[in-house]
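Hi,

I'm pasting everything inline rather than attaching a file, because the server keeps stripping attachments. The sequence lines come first, and each chain or strand is labelled.
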Amino acid sequence: MPNVAENLNVPPPNHVLVLDGQGWIGLVDQMGTETSIVNAARVSFGKIRQVMDQRDAALVKYLIANHHTSPLEHVMFTFLVHCPLFVRSQWHRHRTWSYNEISRRYTNEDITFYLPGALREQAESDRQASKVAEHINQDECRSLIAKHHAASLRLFERLLAEGVCREQARGVLPQNMMTTFWATVDLNNLIKFIELRDSPHAQSEIREYGQAIKKLITPIVPHVAEVLNWS
Amino acid sequence: MPNVAENLNVPPPNHVLVLDGQGWIGLVDQMGTETSIVNAARVSFGKIRQVMDQRDAALVKYLIANHHTSPLEHVMFTFLVHCPLFVRSQWHRHRTWSYNEISRRYTNEDITFYLPGALREQAESDRQASKVAEHINQDECRSLIAKHHAASLRLFERLLAEGVCREQARGVLPQNMMTTFWATVDLNNLIKFIELRDSPHAQSEIREYGQAIKKLITPIVPHVAEVLNWS
Amino acid sequence: MPNVAENLNVPPPNHVLVLDGQGWIGLVDQMGTETSIVNAARVSFGKIRQVMDQRDAALVKYLIANHHTSPLEHVMFTFLVHCPLFVRSQWHRHRTWSYNEISRRYTNEDITFYLPGALREQAESDRQASKVAEHINQDECRSLIAKHHAASLRLFERLLAEGVCREQARGVLPQNMMTTFWATVDLNNLIKFIELRDSPHAQSEIREYGQAIKKLITPIVPHVAEVLNWS
Amino acid sequence: MPNVAENLNVPPPNHVLVLDGQGWIGLVDQMGTETSIVNAARVSFGKIRQVMDQRDAALVKYLIANHHTSPLEHVMFTFLVHCPLFVRSQWHRHRTWSYNEISRRYTNEDITFYLPGALREQAESDRQASKVAEHINQDECRSLIAKHHAASLRLFERLLAEGVCREQARGVLPQNMMTTFWATVDLNNLIKFIELRDSPHAQSEIREYGQAIKKLITPIVPHVAEVLNWS
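And the predicted assembly:
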């Protein structure tokens, strides 16, 4: 696993910042290219090729357009993700990824919290969405949240000082707490993730991660990005 | 889905209480029996039977002892689970289950929190475990936690009143918040869950759910329970 | 597992014949209803219902139309399938099912072969399809195939008589050999199977099984069938 | 996908021959190392390292011995496999792999068959195994099998000449036919495959592939190989 920092709050070199710089996602490892996709697809016909030409680019587009997605599963990515707990819970609902996450049962170091840069209003018509706020007192609300984060951390540390074990004490920490996890997935399932999470129905915060993933992998699978209109 | 209550804080009829009555797990639907297991196993040999006899009981034991577990996958269970968020996060790491969970993006009703009945100390030698507390001031610590829960809920409601959307406001709610989810799994993967979660390495809270599952399904798969020493 | 026959070449009571009566698929067990789907979906909003009304039917349609398919995973089916080996191989590419199959390593009884009722021509333009034959000498070709099946079985039995083990001797048996397997799947993944296998791109033989599944489960999930235009 | 041949009957450079040279498995791509495993495991404690030391080797052993296998899922392998159909069917029962296989619906070129180098006898006591043959007339039996392969191919080609489509004509080809497929899997599930398929209960033919995989990946994960006694 090349080039990752010693501290889990520091992103790896190839990363994209999100959430006003409070979160990030880095690409730390990768296997396969679009030539892998083409070869896995052409095996049906008993063919293999060494380099891609224009017909292969057309094949990649055909496969995606027609949901013949199994050849995409030979391309893999490993990411390191730094995000709030509530984003992590949405993410881990995707069961085709492999995950390993920091655990507050085992360490109480480097605890930070996500403070929304801009608070959004509840949408009236659509229960799934929020909208840009016009009437919210941003300064006051953000200040209340920041104070709550600090009070939560003080209580957590107080409980530890009283002798309470980490696995119980962490229960007082809010869902805005930041976490870090390894995440490995194949290209087929990654595309499904992006469709669901970089969507107007998804929460704005996780959507930023979906968009960041597109930026990170477009150089590796440019024809896939083109057919899916990622640019 | 038979016999479930209108309110998601009320357990279905066939349930086991855990966490001093603050949590519960109910069995709401089920498919297959030990005869299903035996028939799925005997298909290799071209055989089917209508009822189980003693040789079939021996076969169930042989299958489990020798990790021939695919026949167990034709027996399914659907549970309704009421647990703290931190237990939910451990549970959802098991990727062979199907889940549907209450979302605080869509409702702000019936919010409650888990208040540990007894706080445990950090174990010295084993970083994964906690132990019975001798030196903790239980009353004071539990009172601090309860006050923090109330303060968290007040801030959540204050933010909603200020116009902040639920999906952002919920970030201040602590991981002790209770949640409710549907969970469907086959017997093979359920046994793996129990092995990992009803274990001395697991956190005491999720372990109670693992033990409750044993009680709920032992009447349905008595020979499986016997070979795994669940009694 | 209710009501299955002693011999694996005999279908269970609730079945559909396919391949001119040479193959069949039976529904032998089932869990959940459309009410299960609705309840699993409404848990997001903290709601549960006992019976379905018109709004629930609309919800089922909304879920499928918008690919919110996780609530469909709490409805399960177990089938018993009797089909040629080449259909089995296409079927087992679907990795979300649970399978247990008769094995010719363990039994050499009740061996039969699929003899196509009508042979089809190779399509010119589309490499994936075949078409109704006009120029094939059906009687002669079918007779050649039938004789080959008989010769294959004779050689298999000769090899067994010579002392060769079943697991090696079976290698001479053709892919038209019939097999029988248990297959359990949830409704979400069953719909994906039907979309891929009851399709003009799929081989005609497996397509008959896809259509038979629709007939077997439409009475159980009528609104799902309606929104997917299965009638 | 580096260095694969144009013809699917030719192995890639990094391969192991099996089945008397009639079959082979090649390693064509790979992601992650034992350092990836260690880092994914240490994230629980908030730690990352650049290179492995002796404590890390001990950690790899601890993880495997205690079934903490999720960190192994960030190491991936892509193989190209050339094997008989009956081995392919056993292999594809492993549902955590990604597969793409040559299809006789789409091509009728380069068809070959597996002719066992030595025929084995049926074991008396254990229905799963075969044993070294003492009483089999090897020459005669192998000659009968070889003739049957040739007759099967002639019939296949005759049917194509009569206008029958490939997808139906292939039904006469025996399970000894060789096939080729791409196969991608993570290290955790690969170890499970090896435990089941390089086992005395497994058929000798697939066991050779399990042993070949060990040879191919031992240089990449030497401490894993050591703790599992692969040498």
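DSSP finds eight helices and seven strands in chain D.

If the labels don't parse on your end, tell me and I'll reformat.
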